[in-house]
Design brief:
The complex is a heterodimer of chains A (597) and B (80).
Chain A lengths: L2 E6 L4 E6 L9 H12 L13 E5 L13 E6 L6 E6 L3 H7 L2 E7 L10 E6 L2 E6 L8 H11 L5 E4 L2 H4 L8 E2 L16 H7 L2 E6 L12 H17 L16 H5 L4 H7 L21 H15 L6 E4 L10 E5 L6 E3 L4 H7 L8 H14 L3 H13 L8 H9 L7 H6 L2 H8 L7 E2 L2 E2 L9 H9 L12 H4 L15 H18 L5 H5 L3 H15 L5 H18 L12 H4 L13 H6 L5
Parallel strand pairs in A: 1-6, 7-11
Antiparallel strand pairs in A: 1-2, 3-4, 3-6, 4-5, 7-8, 9-10, 9-11, 12-13, 13-14, 15-16
Chain B lengths: L1 E6 L17 E4 L5 H8 L8 E4 L2 E3 L11 E5 L6
Parallel strand pairs in B: 1-5
Antiparallel strand pairs in B: 1-2, 3-4, 3-5
The chains are: A alpha+beta (597), B mainly beta (80).
The complex binds iron/sulfur cluster (SF4).
Iron/sulfur cluster (SF4) binds next to loops of chain A.
Amino acid sequence: MSKILRINMSDLGHKWETLPKKYETLAGRAFTSAVIHDEVDPTCHPLREKNKFVIAPGLLAGTMAPSSGRLSVGGKSPLTGGIKEANAGGLTATRLGYLDLRGVIIEGAPPAETKDWYSIYFGKDKCEVKKTNDYAGMGLYELIGKIWKDYPNKPGIIGCGIAGQRLHKGAGVFGNNVENTDPGRYAGRGGLGAVLGSKRIIAIISDASDGSRPEAKDKDRFEKGRKAFKDALENHALTGRLNNEKGEPYGALKNYGTNVLQNILNEAGALPTRGFRTGRFEDAAKISGEAVHDLIDKTRKKFGNKAEGKYGHACHPGCVIACSNVVPYEKTGKAQVSPLEYETAWAFGTNLGIGVLHDVAEMNRICNDLGLDTIDAGNAIAMFMESGLIDFGDGPAAIELLKKGYNSESAEGALVCSGALTAGETLGVSRIPVVKGQALPAYDPRAIRGIGVTYATTTMGADHTAGYTIAAEIVGIKGTVTDPKAIDKAGLSRTFQATTAYIDSTGYCLFIAFCILDDDSGFGGMLDTVNGFLGKDIDVGEYGMAVLKNERAFNKGAGFTAKDGRLPEFFHTEPLPPHNVVFEVSDEEIDAVYKDM
Amino acid sequence: MKILAKLYATLRKYAPPDNELGEFFEVEFNGATISDLIEQLGFTQEQARIVFVNDSQTSDLLSTLSNGDRVVMFPPVGGG
Ligand code: SF4
């Protein structure tokens, strides 16, 4: 019987609860959003004791289902003021699955005068809230190494870094990778790292050494589904294996990672460049997934088995798509950062006009070490460039600025850690690319309007993953390339948002969507794993909509109205070259997405 | 006629070895349509999932090309 672990930071106590009947099928995002909706006052201050921090593995985490070990963390976001679910790989979801824990709920906060820092350690039938002042103020590369020395059972770790400890709104929740060499498995968005900091928590350490693999209720159905789904993933040209029979590169994600998108968005004229000024970046290819692939091959040739660069790297145990990577230093072949994803390469590269792969990867590394969301940090640096304090394209200056984040006495450092909105407003910028206070990611909504509808309408603030319409608008998944002009943007965005909420709850990585939308046997197999695991059928659309309903109700309670679902003015008035388009979706069309909810 | 072609991701192996990533290369084209070009370059229509001609995305592989056209092709890509 699945359990919930509830920890109260006001008295440092904890209790184990049996999973209530109403949460029986809820996991991952469905679980975090239900708990936030049911237990958190939507008007509360996100950085005080009334907020809660909820951790939930996806339903299938820890099972043999492929790519199913994703973790959700949730709370009221200090960045948006609304509900937040952020999602990541790493080890923690698998560990929680092995411990049969559906969720960990952290509530309360130590008294305001507390100077102490804590970490939470739990395993099978054990939980301790420990004073860990020695973990405070440490870079996260060093911290994860220390924790694995302190706890030799290879635990999962999530937590907050310096940025979260200082309650900055750009702080993400880090996670250690499978090898424990990089804290780069980020549930990055929405400032949830600061929520942990407000509860004086640095690390949450999960030890599954006495746990066991979760079992499906209907084992045959689960097994049959698992095999069909795994085959579909491995054979699809996007999610599939590394090489074909001739030894040539085959699966695009395994070879090039998510950053394979850099060139296509550039060719489509939809790649936001230099603070969303144009849709093309002349140096896009130099920081693209293909360039990272070539760099890895080159350093492998030069340094042989001392080379640490990797593609086809899995972000959690059991991912068969393995879109992650380890970017090497060109000069030594040693690891610089893992992973470098599309959104990050865009945030520190394209959006700042920086075409030097080393500089982009270095900023990613600094964010991983400080505990910062790369998308909001990159957009915050863009605000410094907009205001003229540093120049677009100046990599060394951008790196210097980001490093000020370490310095508790630097106002600039605090700003760069506080997200694009706070930085932009403070610096007198009027072109601030945010929705609900959260910075836009790497798709310009003027050129790709469906994603603009998602940015505007999702409860999360500007978030591409909440309803990834790019799959239909650009990538043309579902057999043929869909004519982008013919798409009903509102309907498309809503369908994607509901399906996404379901996937985010199963533990599956969102990238399975590319395969299951294309391949019916893969889709059927995926459903069989979920329904076989639960021992009953659930409906994808209904399940997803129920999640969205909770999230929307919370945001309504927090004071959000239709006017919060709007893109910044400049997207309506400044045409984006090369296609010279503005965002032409009307407010009525946007409001139609959720008119009945 | 001459066509300018650009190939990305897993299609790059069909470009000349000295072709720089992100740059066009010239093709002495003997056919008429996009699908003829795909055949001449040595891969299949299935592999060319995303096609741009002169900056516009197209799904009609039977449309004819003209001298000097810029054709950019990708296999299925995605992520985020
Ligand atoms: S596809 Fe990539 S992001 Fe998704 S689970 Fe696998 S490695 Fe992680």
